[in-house]
Amino acid sequence: MFKKSLIGLSIFLLIIVAGVSTVVIKPSLLRGPITLGAQRFAGLDIELDTLESHRAPLRLELSGLRISNPDWPEPTLLTLDRLSLKLIASPFKPGAFWSLESDGLSVNLAGNRDGEFNWITEQLRGDALPPPTEQPEAGVATLPGDFNFQQLVLRNTHIHLHSADDQRHHIALAEIRGERTEVGNGEFTLELAYRQQRFTLSGGIVLFDPTAGILDYQLAIKHPDAQLNSQGRLTLSPDLQGSALQLDVALQSLEQLASLADVTAPPLPPSTLSAQLNITDDYELRALTLSIGDNRLSGSATLSSDLRRIAATLNSPALDIDALSAALTSDSPPADSTAKDREAETELDWQWLHERQLSARFDIAKLSASGWTLHKVRGELTADRQLNLSLQLAEAQQQATQRHLTDIDAQLQLQPLAKRTRGSDATLSLALRQQQLTLNAEGKVNLNGIAGSQLKISSQAPRSADIWSLALLPWREAGAMRLEAELSSSDQHIQLSANATLGQQQADLDLRYRPGSDTANAKLDGNIALRHLSTDFMSTATPTATPAPTKAKKAAKVFSKEAIATDALRQIDGELIVELLDIDTGYTVISKAKLKPRLRNGVLNLDDSRIYADGGEAHISAQLDASQVVPSLRGQLKIDGSDYGKLGLIKAAGISHGQGKIRIDLNAQGNSPAALAASMAGQIDMKITGLEAKGNALNLIGSDVLTETIDKLNPFSEKRETTQIECLAVHFKGARGKFVSKDGIALETESSKIIGTGHVDLGKEELQFGVSPIARKGVGVNVGAAASLIRLGGTFARPRVEADPGGMFTSGLSTGAAIYTGGLSLVAQGLMKRALYAGSACDGELDEIPAAEELPEELLQPRPLLNPDGSPQLPAQSGGATQQTAAPTSAN
Fold first, then answer.
1. In whole angstroms, what is the distance from residue 299 CA to residue 289 CA?
2. Tell me: the pLDDT tens digits for 660-695?
3. Global pTM value
4. Is 19 left (phi over 0), alpha (psi -120 to 50) or beta?
5. How far apart are CA 859 and CA 786, in angstroms?
6. Beta 98-110 vs 149-162: how paired, if at all?
């Protein structure tokens, strides 16, 4: 037995000696076996230009190595210009015993659409794979006590990648160098070029405790736009437990790096990241600091080894969310999606919430977002089968409006209804407080759709002035505010029921909305009830300063030519019932009203509706037909007043009392306000008696022109505290935008009549009226009275008052001259017939315009005054008036 063993050992040693001798003395003898073996067993062609050996030191050198796969379209797999393998010590002794240098290594890696790889030949694909063996349980890796090489240098290494979709890439490695510096210590460098970009990797390794698989390392990666540095201790166990790492990253720009992946990078400002990672039973991130531009975030985090538990604490002196969003978002347009895709509700997956436990505390000194600046933002977010958010703000300010809020607190809880949801997704509990203002919401919500929400909402404010301040409204305190609402939705409808109170004011809503479809319009139905409302609190709490006068601008048109958007009227149907009870509009008090607006197929109707108010009642009916290419509008308004002062005149113009009727009937068609005005037709009639005005004139809002007109027309009356208006009558008839009053305007006081005639052209936005006062008592009809004819003309934007320079009423001459040379014009005669009517302009039916049947002869054929030589004496032309009078006659 011993003899056989000795013989076997001798044969084995002989084979080793023969092999080593062949390699050392005549290595070229191995070229044939290498070529034949590669062809037979791997199907690869291997060619060598030279294979030589040298002594002192012992080394093996080869050149011109080529490996090819003859079955691949591009057969070359590898080329190597030169390689030198040195044996510097005995391999049976501890320490480094070899070194290697190469130059001109080129490797081609390619694949095709069939999933084949260019290095796998037919022979290699045909070899049966050995049955899988059970892997032993991984443990701590055992490292060698020292590196067995002294130096590795690979120069001019190239890797060529050819993908199945014919994409080609080239990685150039100018030099790869690894060197053993001392026992257990090594350094390495790598210079890499890819797509005209250069990277340099350098570092070192210290085999700290090889038997325990522990090493210390240093790593540095440098790029013109980014740098990465890392160092620490690695324990090479499967979970790396016991490792401690330090990571520092600096980034100047993302543009060049992103081009390596053929993507467009956002304009990220200079950024840095620093963190310490300790791997124990958990992953512990300490001294975590992230800076993006001027934004800085720091803190710590702990993650369980299975990433199921995450706890973090984050702090920041300042965060600008708008700047971060711009820095982290690419300028590329969002992916297009169809309307159907946008409307489709997707299923929500809440499985992660059952598999993760998250706890995050944050403290941000200053947070800017969407035009708001928030101070002392503190809160906590937790996730464990449900989401909980607690948030506190010391103050919030909106830059654009200077809106300022303080002492804000919010509590949010979101509990998913299942691990996967569609429709009703979760139950919501929200409590929001801003000082004494509160808002609460509870119920089921659909987070990415409409159907399935059922919410109860409540809000309270002890002082409504706090709400006005929040909304930047200069309104006065109106009492406590309370809101209770319920919102529910399904596939067929959305329903809102709400009750709101503001002091004694109340509002109730019950609305139902049905979304539209391809075959049916959307629909809105419901009831609105308003009770004891007053707009008094909307008046400014404190008087505002009078604005500084500004330079007059060019007058603009009153009626816009911009098309009226009527598409919405054709897309929704609806029917509402609006009930009003004790509503103070600021001008009048509506004691009771019930309105029933109805919209169907683009036609909005308000049928005969009655409004009862203090001082009278009104009947309204209207229709807006937007179903046609050109919309049409018609409306009727009837007012029967027992006290027009209470109906609004006392607050609008300081006019009280008054009884009478107003009838307005109008119709128009057009696509814009200007077109509607230019096509308007209809009739306006008004007769009101027993009015009492403050002072001499009417104080209507914006009535500078009217006041000037009254002042010019009223030479008879002295200054008074009040003026009794016995009759106010107005009559207009219109067609194609032009409304004409033929002697149909009259204002009568105890001492005078003011009579007017003329027209309003809505299409041209022009007006032209002639008015004249006539004394009723104590003054006869005279030339001076007739000479007071006044014209009110100009445009809507710039009306003006002037005497009658164009002869509108006197056929080119002043009134006095007309009397002396042939009498009044037909227009002036109509005015005089109205003025000399013995009764009242409010006599007769509403649309009747009473007038005297004939004018006195002295107005039609006046006797001229004579000069001493017997010739007629003419009045002066300037000013259109004369102070000479004919013989007085009675006005009655």
1. 7
2. 999 999 999 999 999 999 999 999 999 999 999 886
3. 0.71
4. alpha
5. 9
6. parallel
